[in-house]
Amino acid sequence: MSGIANIPAPHNEPVLSYAPGTAERTALKSALASQSGEVVDVPAVIGGRMVRGGKLEDVTAPHRHRQVLARVHHADADAIRAAVEAAVEAQRDWASWRFEDRAAVFLKAADLLAAEWRQVLNAATMLGQSKTAYQAEIDSACELIDFLRFNVHFAEQLYAEQPMSAAGAWNRLDHRPLEGFVYAITPFNFTAIGGNLPTAPALMGNTVVWKPAATATLSNWHFYRLLEEAGLPPGVINFVPGDPVEVSNILLADSRLAGIHFTGSTTVLRALWKQVAGNLERYRSYPRIVGETGGKDFIVAHPSADAAALAVGMVRGAYEYQGQKCSAASRAYVPRSLWPEVRDRVVSDIGSIRVGDVADFTNFRGAVIDQRAFTRLRTHLERAKTDSGVSVVAGGGTDDREGWFVQPTLLQVDDPGYRLMCEEIFGPVLAVHVYDDARWRETLDIVDRTSPYALTGGVFAQERSALIEAEQALRNAAGNFYLNDKPTGAVVGQQPFGGARASGTNDKAGSILNLMRWVSPRAIKENFDPPKDYRYPFMREA
Ligand code: NAD
User: Fold this and answer.
1) Class of domain 297-483
2) Which ligand 1 atom sits closest to the C-alpha of 213?
3) Residue ranges per domain, the chain?
4) Secondary structure E strands in 342-419
5) Is the pLDDT confidence value at 542 over 90?
6) Residues 6+ apart with CB under 8 A from 435
7) How far is the CA of 186 from the centre of ligand 1 (A)?
8) Atom 39 of ligand 1, nearest CA residue
9) Does 142 qualify as catalytic in the annotation?
10) What is the per-residue pLDDT for 53?
């Protein structure tokens, strides 16, 4: 084809309601029923070939932990090495594809996900990761569709980034993919991130080894199959479930490691970074490291805040998806004058929140992801109950008989430096420090200083001057900052997502800034009239 194609303009995928009587509700219930009755066999896929035979690991439903949903074949050492070879082998051909052809694969994937695959992914995300219908819809359907469509749009903008040319020459930028392979390591809590981390580098012409999170393997596997249906060629993305340390040890020792696209905990990113640093002499290029990690996301209220809006921001921000969003509010600072009303509203909302099996649509929340998370949270809550200066205002209970259930919990904490005001908890626990109204300014400093993270945060105030003050004082405390809104729910194309400090490299997933990390531009100068004599005019006698 000759021609400069117009890329379809992206739009955010509309969020379906799943209200009674809707077609999407019927379709989702039917997908849930059929997936509940099966155990999916999940292999590794290397160079387009399914590979079985490694250690087997079960994926279970967090809210019904005896129910096995999938049996996953771990890639063994040989298979992991084969995945690297497959990625490197596939790159020459894939990188030679025109952008339009690569883009078409991902645009088709978005369309498939918006239609016949939507409820497959939503049901798998609900069952495997314990999301409600709405939380699955905004993740495995809408956000993932948005990543696929907006990345194509941003890639077009990036490719259009070209230098100027002086008379007699033409300068161009060749936005090359990285030389080697990209290692995508994805978290359990968003199917959309699982899909975005391997596909964003692939769109830019890279080839990838993708290691999904064990507990999200079911939904991630269905997305991988969808990519194949959309026409992704073999070897471009290699699906490699396995032991994270074993996979990383092999991949990070390879001279062709070109980049790491990671989302997960701060501890793991730091370990990977150190390992890369230790191997630096081996690599052909300096591997790009893009890592989005933990948060200790805050809500801070000014005495002029609207108490009702604040309470809703706290409840939705802290407890949706069991507080297992990297952006979930887990510390709040409320002025003493507002506290009684805000506390009563939050306690009353907590009392009405139904927790249970996500296939029952009347539940607002499901279970936390696995036994390890459950035990960690139970330990936190048990300690909090006996710590001085801490009172459990609501919740605090746990129940592991059927599933890994942790009650939405509200703690009131005297010391703003208390452990649970500083560390990421990653569960439905909101710690609140009540401050004297006159100490607003000082409280902003405390918010900025108390945690090493800087991912998201929200300020509630009706006085404009307070919003301005907070925006300035907390400039480096959050990469996603909200005025009179909860700190969760970033939308691709609207609030590019990521934070700094211990929260990551802030390369803003689903934006042009992220795609830039997956190209290595070559500047090309073509001289239309090359000089024929090495001497410059000033060298002549007269
Ligand atoms: P995790 O760090 O436990 O796991 C993330 C991935 O790393 C998984 O695929 C896991 O198998 C792998 N992994 C674990 N140990 C490893 C090791 N030693 N070497 C290599 N890989 C290893 O995180 P998680 O529990 O899946 O996700 C929750 C964390 O992710 C939270 O800290 C949350 O804040 C963060 N998160 C951040 C963002 C963001 O955009 N900033 C988004 C989602 C989640």
Assistant:
1) alpha beta
2) 9
3) 23-293+504-524, 297-483
4) 390-394, 398-399, 405-406, 409-413
5) no
6) 333, 334, 335, 336, 416, 442, 443
7) 7
8) 292
9) no
10) 86
The H or E element that residue 210 is part of is: strand 207-211
Alpha helices by DSSP H, 37-115:
77-96, 99-114
Counting every residue written for the chain, the total comes to: 542
Which residue in the list 13, 143, 326, 424 is annotated as catalytic?
326
Backbone angles phi, psi at 391, to 5 degrees: -125, 140
- Averaged pLDDT for residues 162-174: 98
pLDDT of 249 reads: 98
Side-chain-side CA neighbours of residue 113 (13 Å): 37
| Mean pLDDT of all residues belonging to the chain | 97
Chain position carrying tokens 């992991």: 80
Average of per-residue pLDDT across 94-100:
97
Q: Which residues of 93-107 are buried (b: 16+ CB within 10 A; e: fewer)?
A: ebbeeebeebbbbbb
Average pLDDT over residues 500-513: 98
Q: Which superfamily does CATH assign the domain made up of 23-293+504-524 to?
A: Aldehyde Dehydrogenase; Chain A, domain 1 (3.40.605.10)
With CA atoms as reference, report the closest residue to 114 among 12, 239, 9, 7.
12
Instruction: Give the integer Cα–Cα distance in Å for 139 and 202.
Output: 21
Q: Which uninterrupted H or E stretch holds 332?
A: strand 329-335
% residues pLDDT > 70 (the chain): 100
Distance in Å, CA 146 to ligand 1 centroid:
22
Tell how far CA 529 is from the center of its chain: 50
Which tokens is 429 given? Answer: 């626990």
Confidence of residue 1 (pLDDT cuts 50, 70, 90): confident
Other Cβ atoms within 10 Å of 278 Cβ, number: 11
Out of 185, 239, 248, give the residue to mutate to test ligand 1, the one with the largest number of ligand atoms within 8 Å of its CB. 185
How confident is the model at residue 19, as a pLDDT? 97
Residues with C-beta less than 6 Å from any ligand 1 atom:
185-190, 193, 211, 213-214, 244-245, 248, 263-265, 268, 271-272, 292-295, 326, 424, 426, 455, 497-498, 503-504
Active site residue 326: yes
Separation between Cα atoms, residue 291 and residue 224, nearest integer Å: 22
Ligand 1 centre to CA of 140 (Å) is 18
Residues paired with 60 in a beta bridge: 68
Q: Flag whether pLDDT at 410 surpasses 90.
A: yes
Q: What are phi and psi of 312, to 5 degrees?
A: -65, -40
pLDDT for 95 equals 98
| Mutation pick for ligand 1 pocket among 189, 193, 249, 375 (CB with most ligand atoms within 8 Å) | 189
Amino acid letter for position 106: F
| Cα–Cα distance list, 36 to 46, 336, 383 (Å) | 28, 48, 37
Coil, strand or helix: which one is 520?
strand
**For 433-485, how does the pLDDT look when each residue is reduced to its tens digit (9 = 90+)?**
999 999 999 999 999 999 999 999 999 999 999 999 999 999 999 999 999 99
